[in-house]
Automatic annotation (TrEMBL):
<dbReference type="InterPro" id="IPR005496">
    <property type="entry name" value="Integral_membrane_TerC"/>
</dbReference>
<feature type="transmembrane region" description="Helical">
    <location>
        <begin position="12"/>
        <end position="35"/>
    </location>
</feature>
<feature type="transmembrane region" description="Helical">
    <location>
        <begin position="234"/>
        <end position="253"/>
    </location>
</feature>
<dbReference type="Pfam" id="PF03741">
    <property type="entry name" value="TerC"/>
</dbReference>
<dbReference type="InterPro" id="IPR036259">
    <property type="entry name" value="MFS_trans_sf"/>
</dbReference>
<feature type="transmembrane region" description="Helical">
    <location>
        <begin position="88"/>
        <end position="104"/>
    </location>
</feature>
<keyword id="KW-0472">Membrane</keyword>
<feature type="transmembrane region" description="Helical">
    <location>
        <begin position="202"/>
        <end position="222"/>
    </location>
</feature>
<feature type="transmembrane region" description="Helical">
    <location>
        <begin position="135"/>
        <end position="155"/>
    </location>
</feature>
<feature type="transmembrane region" description="Helical">
    <location>
        <begin position="47"/>
        <end position="68"/>
    </location>
</feature>
<keyword id="KW-0812">Transmembrane</keyword>
<protein>
    <submittedName>
        <fullName>TerC family protein</fullName>
    </submittedName>
</protein>
<comment type="similarity">
    <text>Belongs to the TerC family.</text>
</comment>
<feature type="transmembrane region" description="Helical">
    <location>
        <begin position="167"/>
        <end position="190"/>
    </location>
</feature>
<keyword id="KW-1133">Transmembrane helix</keyword>
Length: 261
């Protein structure tokens, strides 16, 4: 286990996944702040911290559940004709559905941020909160909605990193815990940075489109899918890491040029 966690692939996956978890958690922080700000001032910090800790527990439970489904690798249905062959398993179905969801959710979020950036915030502001318990319940509901893409991203980044799926699960849990701890400690600073550089969040959503496409191809590969005699191969995760690193480098140069001007 320790050797795996200290390996180059695991460290790169952990750093990348933690970064994406934080970027994806920005909206969550904004909505939690809106919910907490409806309480008396002496309860706002408490509601935020309790909400984020419970959100971390909620995500870890979801990780166990989704990882169990992804672990069901045995095919239960086979299809074959002159141009298509596939062997369906629950693992492939979860990855395929997750990839479609990430692509849909990311493109929808990007469109909404460009056209109606305050739509979701306004919906949260309309809800009435009269007590700390109500605020925490609302925070958990909000986090559950945002947990789905977070969990699918973690699955996509760590799937098949190690033959033992439990090792990948531990890596995902570590990334979730680190990201939540960072958000608890630097929530306001992170939110201000993203407000100042909104392109970072759009970039994170664009990464989700890449991860969604990778999940779809991974599902086809695990199903031994063959189109017209051509077998679908898996996309090496190194390509994804390079694309993310290159995009962040370009964004860094853009921000530096903007500051110089």
């Amino acid at each position: 286990m320790i050797e795996f966690l200290l390996s180059g692939d695991a460290i790169i996956a952990l750093v990348t996944l933690t970064f994406l978890e934080i970027i994806l958690g920005i909206d969550n922080i904004v909505f939690i702040s809106i919910a907490a700000n409806k309480l008396p001032e002496n309860q706002r910090g408490k509601a935020t911290n309790i909400g984020l800790v419970l959100a971390m527990v909620q995500r870890i439970i979801l990780l166990f559940f989704v990882s169990f489904l992804v672990g069901l690798k045995e095919p239960f249905y086979e299809f074959e004709n002159s141009w298509l062959e596939l062997h369906l398993s629950w693992q492939a179905i979860i990855l395929f559905a997750g990839g479609l969801f990430l692509i849909y959710k990311s493109t929808s979020e990007i469109r909404e941020k460009v056209e109606t950036p305050t739509h979701d915030e306004n919906n949260v502001k309309k809800r009435v909160i009269n007590s700390l318990q109500q605020a925490i319940v609302q925070i958990l509901i909000i986090d559950f909605i945002f947990s789905v893409d977070s969990i699918l991203t973690a699955i996509g980044m760590t799937n098949n990193l190690h033959p033992n799926s439990n090792y990948s699960l531990v890596l995902m849990i570590i990334a979730v815990v680190i990201s939540i701890v960072i958000m608890i400690g630097f929530a306001n600073g992170i939110r201000k940075f993203i407000d100042k550089h909104p392109s970072m969040q759009v970039l994170g959503l664009a990464f989700l489109i890449l991860i969604g496409f990778m999940l779809i191809t991974e599902a086809a590969h695990l199903s031994n899918t063959t189109f017209f005699g051509k077998t679908v191969g898996a996309i090496p995760k190194g390509y994804l890491y390079f694309a993310i690193a290159f995009s962040l480098f370009v964004e860094f140069l853009n921000q530096k040029l903007a500051r110089n001007k």
